[in-house]
Amino acid sequence: MTSPLTPSVTEGRWTPxxxxxLLVPCAAMFLDALDVSMVxxxxxxxxxxxxxxxxxxxWVVSGYILGYGGLLLLGGRTADLLGRRRVFLMALGVFALxxxxxxxxxxxxxxxxxxxxxxxxAAFTAPAGLSIITTTFPEGPMRNRALSIYTTCAATGFSMxxxxxxxxxxxxxxxxxxxxxxxxxxxxxxxxKLLPRSTRERDHDGYDxxxxxxxxxxxxxLVFTVVQAPEAGWTSARTLLSFAAVAVLLTxxxxxxxxxxxxxxxxxxxxxxxxxxxxxxxxxFFGSYVSFQFIVTLYMQSxxxxxxxxxxxxFLPAGALVAVSSTKVGDIVDRFGTQRLLAVGFTLMVAGxxxxxxxxxxxxxxxxxxxxxxxxGAACALVFPSLNIQATNGVDDHEQGMxxxxxxxxxxxxxxxxxxxxxxxxxxxxxxxxxxxAVLDSYRPGLIVVTGIAVVxxxxxxxxxxxxxxxxxxxxxxxxxxxxxxxxxxADPDAARVPVRD
Length: 502
Fold this sequence. Notes:
Layout: H1 16-50, H2 54-82, H3 84-104, H4 108-136, H5 141-171, H6 173-178, H7 180-194, H8 209-232, H9 237-259, H10 273-303, H11 308-325, H12 329-336, H13 338-356, H14 365-392, H15 400-429, H16 436-466, E1 475-476, H17 486-491, E2 497-498
Antiparallel strand pairs: 1-2
Helix pairs in contact: 1-2, 1-4, 1-5, 1-7, 2-3, 2-4, 2-8, 2-15, 3-4, 3-7, 4-15, 5-11, 5-12, 5-14, 8-9, 8-15, 10-14, 10-15, 10-16, 11-14, 12-13, 13-14, 13-16, 15-16
């Protein structure tokens, strides 16, 4: 399923133009990962320089999450309707300008605003970039290889961000904000030359304005409520009313989408078991990892007294393992299928988290920390590309942006929800005893919850193995709830089929 305007693809042949089409979206993903990993280490310097309180400082991170997680559904569908290349390049330009603004501001509110704008632009570049890849490379070995390279760029960006943040913050926290700007501009210039012009979806039934408003409002309010819940209190009237409002908005959104001739999210796509498992797997995968990183960073810096650079280097083996091995995952998927790789990956992830439960106040890195990092790195190398492949396989080109936005929404919402839950568990476990051992003991319940989240992901993956049909058969993906008819399915029988392995 490729657009007629995409580069000519010959099975097994990778032309320079094809590489260029792949590397530009990879650069955007690299930037997203780089930016997320760099800002955490710079927070203490930002607070000192701009005079921010702890509650204000959290919005340097939360502002990005709010813009990113809240607008992904809109970003994905916009790419389908207005053209992936156009949406991707415009959003990348905004990302570059917001990065420049973030490095030059002299007040907390302006910095938070720049972070929100960066998150907003990433909400458009991420699904547009992923859908450019999935509509350029045909489903099968070529797409699997492309998506494994895409994963490698994300892991490389995250790993480099950890190290660069430690180095740049020593000079100035502003450098961590400014660094993405020139990289984004280079990617923008390259994209203008290398990305193929994509067609808009000309036969759509108008713009789903009510769905866009309701979907965006519900995601924004959900992310905002979850981020604020640990501070406001999970059982406070404010939090409960916000969750009730989210429920009302989501219910209304579903009702509107069921009746819309051109929905923001075609609900029929979620009748595919593989699609549901991919979305739930994305939530548990990223939610468990970001929560683990949060606790371990506190453990290393607050308890062990490690520097920011020392902590970054401690995480580096996991990212380096992903960067080195991810390019090979496509071949493994071709042989074993995504469900088997997801099951193995989540098993490694559970083992890595569980192993870390035994850490003490005087750990030997090679014995107590490194094994967990290597297991988690191996898990990420298998799980992340497999989720991308499974979510986008069997989906028509004109809905790739929608599915990509849905997957990225699951990633971000899962991260926000589970991090908030784990933070609440750690806070609840804290006592008046400020001794190092007491603080470490307050971290363990959070680590147990992280491990439990990964176990849920493993059970979801295993459920897919039990439902895999016999070899040689295929599974029909549900089409539209109302407008698609049997005649359409007869006219295009292959468009609705998903390979058995996925």
